[in-house]
Design a protein that fits this description.
This protein is of the alpha/beta class. The protein contains 7 helices and 18 strands. The strands form 3 sheets. Strands 8-5-4-3-2-1-18 form a 7-stranded mixed sheet. α6 crosses α7.
């Protein structure tokens, strides 16, 4: 049995004592490991973590899907509160990340670097393909980019104000959990494309994907793109969707009206079980 608890999301659940803000953080309890997946944008994430009475000493691995602030910004607060678990990130995680609209730049990157980790005796583990944590849990990166409809917005760049280049999000990683019904993919933002990610994982594991949980960056997608995405996921055998964070309410509403999927929205404080 696996339990997933949403520590932080853009939206609040029925537990109004918890904070909600733009960001994502999840706590996953499997049969043999406890995993922290992403850390939200700031100190409100650790406040929710404490309010939910989760022991920081019970985290076996910390995983950061990519280095955008809304996933990595709360990490330092966890370390200052005693988190010592190894941190798993993708290749090029510490590259400087920016948003550029043609005139102005905005820093979107993490608020810590590798020196912060070494100063706090945190082991850094990089994942560039498949990293097995247990018989049940895997961290995966380096996704095949074959679906031409899944384009990364041009405003996302790496580098500095003078020399920058389009961000391909090679640092993005996901968590894969094996269940009796098939693979569960836990995603942060899915910048490489949720169809690309799902297809890559199904091919590499040679197993069907049962469910997807997390952010899919479909917030800017029109109905045609969303319908195409849902059709592709359906063709890959996906049955359960719990999109949140950067997915957007349009896709959540469209999924809820599609009787081909079991679905729910997972807000801050919500939890779900699967086996």
């Amino acid at each position: 049995m696996v339990k997933l608890t949403v520590i932080m999301d853009n939206l609040a659940s029925e537990n109004k004592s918890l904070h909600n803000c733009h960001g994502l953080s999840l706590f996953i309890e499997s049969s043999d490991l406890n995993l922290m997946f992403d850390f939200g944008s700031g100190e409100d994430t650790i406040k929710n973590f404490k309010a939910l009475n989760i022991d920081i000493n019970n985290i076996d691995y910390a995983i950061c899907s990519h280095s955008h602030y809304d996933h990595a910004g709360g990490y330092k607060n966890f370390v200052r509160d005693g988190l010592k678990s190894p941190l798993i990130v993708g290749d090029s995680f510490f590259n400087k990340k920016l948003a550029f609209n043609g005139i102005k730049y905005t820093d979107l990157g993490a608020n810590f670097n590798s020196k912060f980790l070494s100063d706090n005796n945190i082991k850094l583990i990089k994942c560039d393909d498949i990293l097995k944590l247990s018989d049940e849990c895997f961290v995966v990166g380096n996704f095949d980019r074959v679906d031409r409809t899944e384009r990364i917005p041009d405003r996302f760049v790496c580098g500095d104000l003078i020399n920058n280049y389009k961000d391909s999000f090679n640092d993005e990683i996901v968590l894969v959990v094996k269940s009796d019904k098939g693979l569960i993919i836990i995603v942060g933002c899915s910048h490489p494309g949720i169809v690309n990610i799902t297809r890559s994982i199904s091919k590499r594991f040679n197993e069907s994907v049962y469910g997807i949980i997390g952010g899919t960056h479909l917030i800017e997608a029109d109905e045609d793109r969303i319908n195409y995405t849902l059709e592709e996921l359906m063709s890959l055998g996906v049955e359960f969707l719990a999109f949140n964070h950067c997915s957007g309410m349009k896709v959540v509403d469209m999924i809820s009206k599609n009787n081909k999927f079991k679905s729910c929205y997972l807000a801050a404080g919500d939890c779900i079980y699967f086996s």
